[in-house]
Amino acid sequence: MRSSLPLGLAGSTAWERCGSEPRRTPCASDLERHLLMVARAVSSSLRATLTAVVLVMGYGCRNADPGAGAWEFNVDTVRSDTAGRVRQISWLRVVGQEGADGEPRAKPVILSFDCLPDQASNTIMTEQALRQGTAEVRVTVDRNPPLRVPGFAGTTPSGGQVVLTIPQDSLLAVLSGRQRAIVEYADGAGSSRTTAEFPLAGLGMYRDAFLAACAERGD
Prior knowledge:
This protein is α+β, with helices and mostly antiparallel strands. The chain has one domain: Invasion associated locus B (IalB) protein (Immunoglobulin-like, Sandwich), CATH 2.60.40. It has helices spanning about 30-40, 45-60, 170-175, 205-215; strands spanning about 15, 70-80, 85-100, 105-115, 120-125, 135-140, 145-155, 160-165, 180-185, 195-200. An eight-stranded antiparallel barrel has the order 3-4-5-8-7-6-9-10, surrounded by four helices. Strand 2 and strand 3 form a beta hairpin. The longest helix has 14 residues, at about 30-40. The radius of gyration is 17 Å and the shape is globular.
């Protein structure tokens, strides 16, 4: 039995309660291209990205407002094609901790909302290699019932990624105003079962600014 979803998600084909199968599966080739697009947009390896974020937070260069939590918001420009056009890109990220099922969550992992010139995405970025294919993902926000989210896993030169194939604004709405998200995921082979925990406090401070910047990215 399907139940209604909170925060304006009713009627969305992307979200369903746990125990129900997703009603649609995105085109794998589109998602494979997206994995490569995100990888190219990251200027260094995932390991370097994680290290840089942790160092910035450790040295106090992160946003000084205590209400911002652990979130990082960035807007930049890139030359996106052979014509040399400059386009805006933006991302909103938070670093969490993850571990294999039954093990301590001691490894860094990123939850990243990215707006590239031709794509808006929600991605879990991990150091572990993930087998390509449809991914099993379950998200539990605070003490709310868990939600099953369709996803696609793969590995790029910068690390493993799980693309959550739901509307970006819908996921941001679910996470905003909350404290913690527990994300359980497995790769395309149903292996590499992992549990990640992300702090959510402060997301609401950046949500509107990020979505506004995303709308200006220039498709």
